[in-house]
Write a structure and sequence with these properties.
It contains 15 helices and 17 strands. The protein is an alpha+beta fold.
Length: about 450
C-alpha cells in the first residue's frame, strides 16, 4: 500500500500541493454557479492554463501571494464580491504551487486576468463608451475621405443606410479571444526558445495587444461602412476574421518573437528542488480551510450587497423591493429600476447586461442631454417587442454617466451612488418622463443604514 513516505521529498511536496488545491477548490464548487464558468474566455483560459504554467525556479518563501490572498480574501469575506473570491482562489493555488513545486512565471497572472469574469465585466462596462468613441472616429475618417457620413451615437448613417456599431462590431468577445491568443503566442515562443520575459516586457506586450485590437476594430468598421457590408452578408464575418489575423495575430507573432529572442532570459532548469518546510505546509492547510470557509459564506449570500438598500420615492408610487437591494417602480408609462451600488469597486447591474437576460439587445445607443444632465439612451429590440431605455448614476445630489467620476466620489467618502434605469414603450414618452424626473425632482433616493 502506497503512502506519502514511499515517495521522495520533491514528489511528496507535489502530492501535498495537489491535495491542498483540490481541497480549496471545494470552495469554488460551493460559491460559484456553473454558469460562472460558461463564458468562452473562461473555458479557453482553463484549456491554456497547463500550457502557460512555467516553473522558473525552485520552491522558496514568497510573501507576494500570501499578502494578496489576505487582501482579496478579506474583501470577499466582508462584501461578498465573487470576483474577489475568484482571485482569492487563484492566488491561493499559485502560492501553493510556488511553495511546493517552484516559482511560477508571471505569464500565468495575465492568463488569469484575461480568463476571469472580472475581465468580461470590465470589457462590457468600458466597451460601451469605447463603442461610441470608435463610432465617432470611424465617422470622422470616412468624412475626411469624402463620404457623407452622419454619426448618431453608435450608428453611422450613409446615404440613408444605417450601420450599427454593436458589441460584435467592437469585438468585446473578440477582445477576450485576442488577449488569450496573445497569451498562446507567448507560450509558443517560450516553449521553442526556452527563454522567458520579465514582468515589464510582458505588460508592454499585452498593452500593445490591446491597442492593436482597438485599431483592428476601427479598421473593420470603416471597411464595413465603406463597402456597405451589412451583418447579413457573409463577408461581414470574413472581414472581421481577416482584420484579426492581419492587424492582431501577425503583428503579435512577430513582436513576441522579437521580444523573447532579444530580451528573454534563458531558463536554468538545472536547479535542484528543495522540499517545502513543515511550517509552510501547515500554513497551506490553514489557508485551505479559510478559503473553503469564505466560499461557504459566499454561498450563504450574507453580504453587504444584500443589506445595502435605498428608500426610493417616485410620484408616490409603491416601490417593489427585489433581491440585491434593487427597487422596481412601475407607472402607467414608465418602468424604473433603482440599483444601489454598495462600494466604489462594485459592479452596478448595468442595463447592457441585465436586459440581455430578458432576451433584449441594445441596437441604437447614444448620449444625450436632458434638462442639463447627460444620460445614456438606447433602443432595445426583441423578436416580439421594442423598448426605449435611459440610465445614469446618482447619489441624490449629483447625476453622472462617468464611471471614474462616481467611483472616485464614493472612494472619497461621498454618498453612495446608484444606477437609475428608466424604460418606456416609445422614445417621446421616455424623454418626457426623464425630463420630469430632473426638472420636477420627482425621484428621491435615501440609503438605509447597513445592518
Amino acid at each position: 500500500m502506497l503512502s506519502l513516505s514511499s515517495f521522495n521529498p520533491a514528489a511528496r511536496d507535489k502530492i501535498t500541493a495537489a491535495i491542498l488545491i483540490v481541497a480549496a477548490l471545494t470552495g469554488a464548487v460551493i460559491a460559484f454557479p456553473l454558469s460562472y464558468f460558461s463564458n468562452s474566455n473562461v473555458i479557453i483560459g482553463l484549456c491554456l492554463f497547463p500550457f502557460a504554467l512555467f516553473i522558473d525556479d525552485r520552491p522558496r518563501l514568497h510573501y507576494k501571494f500570501p499578502l494578496l490572498i489576505l487582501f482579496v480574501g478579506t474583501v470577499a469575506f466582508i462584501y461578498g464580491v465573487r470576483i474577489f473570491y475568484f482571485f482569492t482562489l487563484a492566488f491561493y493555488i499559485l502560492w501553493i504551487m510556488e511553495t511546493f513545486v517552484g516559482k511560477i512565471n508571471n505569464l500565468i497572472l495575465f492568463l488569469l486576468a484575461f480568463m476571469s469574469p472580472f475581465f468580461y465585466q470590465v470589457t462590457t462596462i468600458l466597451g460601451f463608451p469605447l463603442r461610441l468613441q470608435l463610432s465617432k472616429c470611424s465617422g470622422w475618417i470616412l468624412q475626411q475621405i469624402g463620404f457623407d457620413i452622419r454619426v448618431e451615437g453608435n450608428m453611422l448613417v450613409r446615404d440613408g443606410a444605417m450601420f450599427t456599431v454593436d458589441e460584435a462590431c467592437v469585438g468585446l468577445s473578440m477582445l477576450s479571444i485576442a488577449m488569450l491568443m496573445a497569451v498562446f503566442l507567448i507560450v509558443h515562443r517560450y516553449k521553442i526558445s526556452a527563454r522567458h520575459l520579465g514582468l515589464c516586457l510582458l505588460t508592454l506586450f499585452f498593452v500593445v495587444a490591446f491597442f492593436l485590437n482597438v485599431i483592428t476594430n476601427l479598421v473593420r468598421i470603416v471597411i464595413l461602412v465603406l463597402f456597405r457590408i451589412v451583418p447579413e452578408n457573409p463577408l461581414h464575418e470574413v472581414i472581421g476574421l481577416l482584420c484579426l489575423v492581419v492587424y492582431v495575430i501577425i503583428p503579435l507573432y512577430l513582436l513576441s518573437r522579437w521580444l523573447v529572442m532579444k530580451y528573454g532570459r534563458r531558463v536554468d532548469k538545472s536547479r535542484v528542488e528543495s522540499p517545502a518546510r513543515p511550517l509552510l505546509k501547515f500554513a497551506g492547510c490553514v489557508f485551505s480551510v479559510a478559503v473553503v470557509f469564505i466560499g461557504v459564506r459566499m454561498a450563504d449570500r450574507e453580504t453587504a450587497m444584500d443589506t445595502v438598500r435605498a428608500d426610493v420615492s417616485f410620484n408616490q408610487l409603491p416601490p417593489e423591493q427585489m433581491r440585491d437591494g434593487i427597487v422596481k417602480i412601475a407607472s402607467e408609462n414608465l418602468l424604473m429600476y433603482v440599483k444601489p451600488i454598495p462600494e466604489f469597486f462594485s459592479g452596478e447591474h448595468t442595463p447592457l447586461i441585465c436586459w440581455k437576460g430578458s432576451g433584449y439587445e441594445f441596437k441604437s445607443i447614444k448620449t444625450c442631454v436632458v434638462a442639463g444632465n447627460t444620460i445614456y439612451t438606447g433602443r432595445l429590440e426583441r423578436q416580439d417587442a421594442e423598448l426605449y431605455s435611459a440610465w445614469w448614476y446618482t447619489n441624490g445630489k449629483i447625476q453622472t454617466i462617468d464611471q471614474l467620476d462616481w467611483r472616485m466620489r464614493m472612494l472619497k467618502g461621498e454618498d453612495r451612488f446608484c444606477l437609475v434605469n428608466v424604460t418606456a414603450a416609445d422614445e417621446p414618452t421616455l424623454m418626457y418622463g426623464v425630463a420630469q424626473i430632473f426638472q420636477e425632482k420627482t425621484l428621491t433616493i435615501a440609503y438605509q443604514p447597513s445592518l
